[in-house]
User: Which sequence fits this backbone?
């Protein structure tokens, strides 16, 4: 069973419109939970908004920001609780969010009943 | 309000261990809903598994595969229903999934009460 943590961050600071600030916050949060980045990409929308995505060891996470609302959507998908909760908490702090709303979705990655013969 | 569609695909074909097949399926699904890719990245895990991520016009989506279970986790985040449902349905077909389980998470991107002064 994998855990997908969905976090909605409200009342974030203005750094959520700065791709480099978001990348730096992501790196800090990933380092904080002891994980490593294996792939990342970032996109700045016109006129406003940033998407950041990283594949980290055995997990991934993404951040999408709507700076005009002070809002950031964060998704962390991992098999390790400390990773999902650690990253969400750290980003709340680094984005200076006034409020965080989290939801946990348990994702059953399969019991093998429909698996392939590899 | 944005819509986050979470799809768990079970009983997928062996192409879910092939990064190029996944990229091609993603392109087909994106084209199918009339969207365009603005950024994408792909990562092949060792010994098995692929992660694909794309930023598409006003939306994003990601695919993570566990070929050993015939399982693919698909996430599509968009403000447009036809995009989320169209991509999920198309990927089910292209991955030859025997079963799909979907969940819709409504994400309130903010009512402005905690917004920044830009």
Assistant:
């Amino acid at each position: 069973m994998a855990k997908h943590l969905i976090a909605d961050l409200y009342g974030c600071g203005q750094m959520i419109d700065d791709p480099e600030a978001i990348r730096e916050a992501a790196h800090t949060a990933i380092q904080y939970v002891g994980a490593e980045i294996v792939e990342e990409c970032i996109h700045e929308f016109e006129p406003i908004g940033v998407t950041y995505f990283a594949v980290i060891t055995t997990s991934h996470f993404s951040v999408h920001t709507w700076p005009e609302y002070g809002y950031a959507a964060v998704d962390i998908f991992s098999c390790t609780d400390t990773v999902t909760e650690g990253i969400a908490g750290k980003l709340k702090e680094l984005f200076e969010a006034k409020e965080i709303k989290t939801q946990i979705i348990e994702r059953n990655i399969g019991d093998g009943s429909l698996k392939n013969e590899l």
About this structure: The beta strands of chain A are 2-10, 37-44, 50-56, 59-66, 71-78, 99-107. Chain A has one domain: 2-107. Chain A has a mean pLDDT of 90. The CA atoms of residues 6 and 105 of chain A lie 8 Å apart.
